[in-house]
Amino acid sequence: MKILVILLLPIIMALLSLLIRNNKLRAIITSLGSLLGLICSISLGYQYLFVYSPITLFNLIYVDALSLFFVFTISVVAAAAALYSQGYIEQELEKRLLTLKQAKYYYILFNLFVFSMLLVTVVNNLGLMWVAIELTTLLSAFLVGFHNTKNSVEAAWKYIIICSVGIILALLGTIFFSYAFLFATGFKSLNWTELMAQAAKLDPNLVKIAFIFILVGYGTKAGLAPMHTWLPDAHSQAISPISALLSGVLLKTAIYAILRYSLIVNLCVGSAFSSHLFILFGMLSLIVSAGFVLVQKDIKRLLAYSSLEHIGIIIFGFGVGGPLGIYGALLHIFNHAVTKSLLFFGAGNIVNEFASHNMRQMRGALKALPFTGFMVLIGLFALAGFPPFSVFFSEFMILMAAFTQNHFILGGALLLLIVIVFSALIYHFSRVLFGEKPKGMATANEPFVGKMAFGFLLVFILIVGWSAPFFLSGLIEAAADVWRGM
Questions:
Q1: Judging by DSSP bridges, how do beta strands 61-63 and 55-57 pair with one another?
Q2: 3-state DSSP call for residue 59?
Q3: d(Cα 297, Cα 245) in Å, to the nearest integer?
Q4: What is the pLDDT of residues 315-359, one digit of tens each?
């Protein structure tokens, strides 16, 4: 089964990383394994689009279009991050910022972290999904505090504590859903397929309470405001390839969990309940992010608050609903994943070159790092929603969904907040990229594999901007059908 190959590959690569002594070989194997995982996810996606039937295995694995869309998105970012890690880790070793032992642990944790995120999206049992999400927290916490500095260790502990509080709330919500199923059927089960089959029979009041716990609990892991306070610290202190994984796909796995539960809620109490909550938390996240991006000094914290904005846009899209809103929200999940990963790669190179996170100490990045600077400039306009890049089209769909469904005030507010964040990003990054580089700073020799990682992500940003390929558009349409219960 291809799904087992996808799950086993990162485990095998983690074991090989433990056994292999040569760091370059370890890095190459991780890159090749991640690429093979991506190929398998594409193959499995095509198989689903032609058969249009969910994949089940031992009643533990359940993979439909929604699962496959997230598996594909995780696989794309993981492949890019593995490729980028080759050059990045070698540079860290050359500068003696890492030891060979730490580099070995990095690749072990990297692969296990990817495995945990993939596991979230394919398990049928909602209790196991909770375990998998907790596993993503524990594994990624080591990667947040990887440099073992005061700030990174503090960020890791803050991440663990806040997300653990959230995960406890999610556990309570999971228990409430289990009780709702028990009261309705007389049987105990946390399998999503069984809860969906009996969703109309569940107690509406108990389901509403349970979903609030789920939304707040997993919303903490997704970085929704006001539960987002761990996010800027963790994203800014994590090693840069991991920052890309955290922002690009980890936040999305928590959204996946929320979506799975909301499908049950919609069948039980109607879609209005979850839609109103999604719009509320989405707009709150946008407002908070717009305020913080204006005053940021740290380049990676700036990108972290931008992630908060885009998570808000995604949740808002699911809230307004409709064909445009759902398609746009799903497309935005992918677009934000590849675009933000590219920018975190660029920010990592800039931080290493200038030996600082403070944007006020950075000037002339385009001259100091010509390739990275150019990629960051493109990524900046893409992230800000500038046409013809991919983010523009998904944001446009969500805006049109709001206006066509007569949410004129909300649509106007969304547009205003997007413009504020766009202006702030342009202002901050223009100061970093342009001007003269510091005296005595030579033009950096950038690793070729790092350039490949940038180019790999840029292809998706440009292609999806013009027209989503059949595979991606078909997968999104099929995932939207799952959301609509078709």
A1: antiparallel
A2: coil
A3: 22
A4: 999 999 888 999 999 999 999 999 999 999 999 888 888 878 788
